[in-house]
Predict the 3D structure of the following.
Amino acid sequence: MRDPERATDELAPSGPMRIVRGITGLSTTIRGRIFVAFLGMSLLSGALGLYAVVAISHVGVLVNRTYDESLMSINYARATAADFAKMRSAFARRTHVRDAAEAAKLDAEIAELSTTLAEDLTIAVERSQSDRSVRTAGAVQAAVAAWEEMRRGLDPATARPERWDALDQRANAVDSQIDLLVNYTAGDGFTFRQAARMLVAREMHVNAIVAGLAVFACALIAWLLNRRITGPLADASVAAERIASGRLDDRIPAGGRDELGSLLRSMAVMRDNIHAMMQREVSQRRVAEALVTDALQTSREGVVVVDAEGGIALANVQALRFFHGLEEAIAAGVSLARASEGSVSKTLDECFRALARDGEIRLADGRWLRVSRSATQSGGFVAVCSDISLLKEQEDRLTETNLRLDAALDNMSQGLCLYDAQHRLMVVNRRYSEIYGLPADAIVPGMSAQDVLAVSLAAGNHAGCDLAALLRQEHEAHRGGAWHTQFQELSNGRTVSIDRRETADGGFVATYEDVTERRRAEARIAFLAHHDTVTGLPNREALGQQIEMAVAQAGRDSGFAVFAIDLDDFRPVNETLGHGVGDELLSAVGERLTACVREIDCVARLGADEFIVVQRNIDRPEEAAVLARRIIEVLSAPYSLSSHEISVGLTIGITLAPGDGASCEKLLKNAEVALDRGKTEARGSFRFFEPEMDARLQARRILERDLRDALAREAFEVYYQPIYSLAADRICGFEALLRWDHPTRGFVSPAEFIPIAEELGLIVPLGEWVLRRACEEAARWPDGLKVAVNVSAVQFTSASLVTAVREALRRTGLPGRRLELEITESVLVANPGATTAILHSLKALGVRVSMDDFGTGYSSLSYLRSFPFDKIKIDQSFVRDLCVKDGTDFIVRAVIGLGSSLGMTTTAEGVETEAQLAHLRAEGCDEVQGYLISRPVPVSQVGEVIRRWNGPTRAIA
């Protein structure tokens, strides 16, 4: 037998063999191929870089020579010229010096400069790059020496001019030789620079060629590497996807000898292993399912398996016995989800209700099932149904007696205590402890009647009483041999009615009833019979009693006054902010009224926003006027409610008794007549009753009746006044104006019946009728014509305005852009936020919105900023005085300029003269309307107006 270590050594390849295999692996493996590719690209990059280093080094040498030799030679040649110039300057100064010391000093300076010149010239020769520079440097040296020799032999005091000229010629010769030296050295520098440039250009060309070859070689290597790897890698990816998707029967390519080939072969083995494991698992599951199915089918419990989607996957035989029709439901694929939608028959409904939750359920055949559900890993559940019918029957018989007694005791509205002949407690119900606020275990059977009273006393239910007092009260309730109802007042303010009845065994039963709410309700009913529910003030019945009492006293003592008070603008507050805020405001008004009067006076509320004040014991009307002023001042102050701050006005009508009447009905009627007169003439003030007011009131009542009847019969007409465009010189639309032709009075002015319609609440249906009629007529006009409809401030408090506009446009087919709604500033005053929201809703329908009577209010500019109106209409009061020099023309010009700046159309109303029209046209007004163009006309004449101003082709369709 061989030694294992020896065997291993024998199997291990020798050194040369390993090298051969390593080299072979470089070409047959992916890692080897990648290594070879990157090694080749690295060698190419290294060679390219080495060549660049050599070339840069060569260029550096040339640059150094250019700088260190040529440039230095030039600088020192120039330094030589400077030295010689200094020598000539020093010598010139020497010739004029008479002091020996100063002359010696200058001689020393000339000698030093001569030495420096020789040194600079020597360095320039050493750095020179050509022979001519060396020869020229020698010539410079000789010329300087000749000049030095001549200078030394020249005596400044005795020298003749010819000597001086000769010396200057020597100096000029030196300068010429130095200039020649500088030029030669500069030429040498230029020569080397040109050589360096040629070398750099050649090296750049060579480097570009070499780099291009390197890039091509790297691209070739990458292409070859990609070709050898991408194909096998794609095969491996496809094979992995097939295995992951469960396609285990597809063929997997064999691959090569590299790692990808090994990967493909391994994936083929893995596929075969997975296939074998799946077959084994399927076989095991089938065996397990057979065992489970056998156990389920023989079980006494009903088992139902539900999957995650609510479908019934399995039900054993017992479950099919419990639920009829379940087998057919499984076959039909019915799920619990569809069952909740009511898509199953009634026979399966109890099955699905039972499976929907844990608990107990009773089947239609009377059997009881207990359902227990367990969740499965897949998201479904297993429901186990057990028949508990016998157990339920036993429980029912066991608890039936107790339930009857408990139901009788615990559901009583009264507390109950049953005592035996020894006055020991036998039975007590829950309600007794609730009435007296005792813990549930404070009163237990076996306690004596005195113990029960002691427990209630200790709980603090009987303040100021002791046990003896409670026993005395109980004894007083037993009079004449019979028990009487006892009313017991507890410390918490509640009242308990106690009734006792003796039992046949000598004991007694006591019932306790909390009658607090009943007593309060009785007191409340008695109070509400004579008082207002909102303010707590006396109502009409109580007011009648007060007035009758005052009438009875007025004949003996003095008179009294009756005030009828009505709040101005209360309806918008109630409708926009809600009835809760309105009730809170009424309550606050009632409190302020009560504070304004004396204790002998009376304040009452008749309904809505109408209050009555009865001022007793007055002798003169001035006393009533003083109280009226005080009431107006106090009630007009702002109200800080829970969520809003509101200010309301009020109007008061006053009648005096017994002069104006001696009955409640007459006095109230007279006060209301005076109130109506005040509201008509000047709101926010008070008026005394006058006899002639009654006739006016009767006339108004008749007008109100006729107005209601006209609205019911739609006995109104809509007239149309044209709107003229100054830019187009044609009619661009009409304004719809409401007219009422009364059967007996003729045409009634809108200024007369519109306010009445607003007060009666008829303006909303009336405005909607005008809107529908105007849209119907405008839909028949040519497409370019629009219709303008006025909207009342009361309509904006109605939530149906936007709906009415939308419905009118839908029914008539009129585009929203052809409808224009005109509003006044008063619309925005009451509730700017809500009104702005309504205006934006109207704009969303495409409707145009214009501000009518612009400039007559007090805050128009702020509203123009808060809401983008399409048009502003200049009030006719400004147009009427347009040609009068009183500043009106400046106001009109400012309004037109404002509209132009804001991008809004400006329309002038009430244009009646050519002068007014010309002035408006000159100021740049966009549109005009008035009697100059046309009076308002009925719909039958609209076509004629269009033909007259726009031509026959624009007539009504």
Observations:
- DSSP finds 32 helices and 28 strands in the chain.
- The first helix runs from residue 4 to 11.
- The two ends are 124 Å apart (CA to CA).
- The longest strand covers residues 730-742.
